[in-house]
Specification:
Layout lengths: L10 H22 L1 H11 L4 H4 L1 H12 L1 H11 L1 H20 L4 H15 L2 H13 L4 H30 L1 H19 L20 H4 L20 H4 L16 H13 L4 H27 L5 H55 L3 H25 L7 H53 L1
Helix pairs in contact: 1-8, 1-9, 1-10, 2-9, 2-14, 2-15, 4-7, 4-17, 5-6, 5-17, 6-7, 6-8, 6-10, 8-9, 9-10, 9-15, 14-15, 14-16, 14-17, 15-16, 15-17, 16-17
Length: 443
């Protein structure tokens, strides 16, 4: 695919961005539509709604944990090749969810789905960067994430409507069909010529690159000394002393060493804040569907439509973050997002005390605004941790956020059992206040 030297995207580049954006939309929708469907899933499988919440954890833990791994694999084997595999796996896992006969099988299917979905957004971002070049990268990635957030916002409402009309199994089947359509769309793309891993696709090196340089004096490559012309150089190999050969680094060991060095390095506060963001923001969002059903008395459709405000305000916050960053700096953007999160938790506590859905409407908006101001800003800050491994740095942010979301679902269930929804939202508000104070000190 040709790269342009202008700030405008060509038709082929727009096709690439939209195709990959649709893949991101499907992966986001597959994750977020489950929350308003939890009460119906629990009723069908004859389990308590709090027990069914393990479905959220089963998806988000592998989804977060494997993001850095997917980034490294994409660098090695080619991003498009990896995308074709993981989008097809997302399709298969989602269809398996539709026919799961028990909670145990459904949890297993969600684990499989989360493993495949883990790299779709991060690998797509890197692919778009390869395809359009640095001069158009910011605009192209903005379009990509705009499409993805649209899927996140609409999925809750669409999932709730499908659950009420045709059941949660049909909802899973519908999203599986969308994943298959996304996989078909990938067949229209080609790997950019300069993308990492291009050699793995069987592209031969040029004859000049493969040519072996002559061993005659004066023919060595620049910077490489000529071979000595002494008699020793002509001696048989058996007369030369054997030189020890350093063993090749184990790629798995190297990956974990680099990841740990970055995560616990000088910028560790950024990654710890990403983990806290996942626990509090995504953990809160995961409980909202069941809360709106059990406490506010909303149907799956009504709960899903209300939660669409989360996605709408993700889009609003994304459009505001650049201007806020220019005026207040990146730590200031994070602080505003955390204040918005506190407001969401307080509004949810009011909704729990009054059994009214109106405060929850504002809570969904504040939660989406807060999340989109905090998470991408942490991604930007993480790039300074190791400029030579930016993909790994951003993948570690994804790991922290989504693994934290899975942990938040588990911890939230414990708090919910002990203090009810009112206690849960008050604890979230208090912890977000602590995060705000800590982030202002460490950033």
């Amino acid at each position: 695919m040709q790269r342009t030297n202008t700030s405008r995207l060509s038709a082929a580049q727009i096709h690439t961005v939209v195709t990959l954006g649709f893949c991101g939309l499907v992966s986001a929708a597959d994750n977020w539509f489950v929350s308003p469907a939890l009460p119906a899933i629990a009723q069908t499988l004859a389990v308590a709604p709090t027990a069914a919440m393990v479905i959220l954890t089963a998806y988000m833990l592998p989804y977060g944990a494997l993001q850095p791994v997917c980034g490294a694999i994409g660098d090695a084997v080619g991003r498009l090749r990896l995308l074709r595999v993981i989008v097809l796996g997302l399709c298969a896992g989602t269809l398996l969810c539709a026919v799961a006969p028990s909670l145990a099988v459904l949890v297993l299917a969600r684990v499989v789905t989360g493993c495949f979905a883990a790299g779709i957004i991060s690998v797509s971002q890197a692919f778009v960067g390869d395809a359009v070049g640095p001069e158009c990268r910011a605009g192209a990635v903005g379009i990509l994430m705009g499409i993805t957030f649209t899927g996140q916002g609409l999925s809750a409402g669409l999932g709730g409507i499908l659950t009420d009309l045709v059941g949660w199994r049909a909802a899973f089947a519908a999203f599986g069909a969308l994943a298959f359509a996304a996989w078909l769309g990938l067949s229209t793309l080609r790997e950019p010529a300069l993308a990492p891993g291009a050699a793995a696709f069987g592209q031969a090196e040029s004859p000049e690159a493969a040519e072996v340089p002559s061993s005659a004096p004066g023919s060595a490559a620049p910077g490489v000394p000529d071979a000595p012309s002494s008699a020793a150089s002509a001696a048989p190999a058996s007369s030369q002393p054997l030189q020890p050969v350093a063993p090749a680094a184990n790629p798995v060991v190297a990956f974990f060493r680099n990841a740990l060095d970055i995560f616990f390095g000088p910028r560790r506060a950024v990654f710890v804040l990403a983990l806290a963001t996942g626990i509090l923001f995504l953990g809160t969002y995961g409980f909202m569907g069941t809360f709106l059903s059990e406490v506010c008395g909303l149907s799956s459709t009504a709960a899903g439509l209300l939660m669409m405000f989360y996605g709408v305000f993700c889009l609003v916050g994304g459009s505001l973050s650049g201007a806020l960053g220019a005026r207040r700096g990146l730590p200031g953007v994070i602080a505003i997002g955390e204040v918005s999160g506190i407001a969401a938790a307080v509004l949810l506590a009011v909704a729990a005390a009054t059994s009214s859905w109106l405060p929850a409407l504002g809570a969904a908006a504040c939660l989406g605004l807060g999340y989109i101001l905090v998470q991408p800003t942490l991604v930007t800050l993480s790039m300074e941790a190791d400029p030579e491994r930016v993909g790994l740095c951003t993948g570690l942010i994804g790991f922290g956020v989504f693994a934290g979301g899975g942990v938040g679902s588990m911890l939230g269930g414990t708090v919910l059992a002990a203090g009810g929804y009112l206690g849960l939202w008050l604890v979230v508000a208090a912890l977000l206040l602590v995060q705000l104070i800590v982030s202002k000190r460490v950033l």
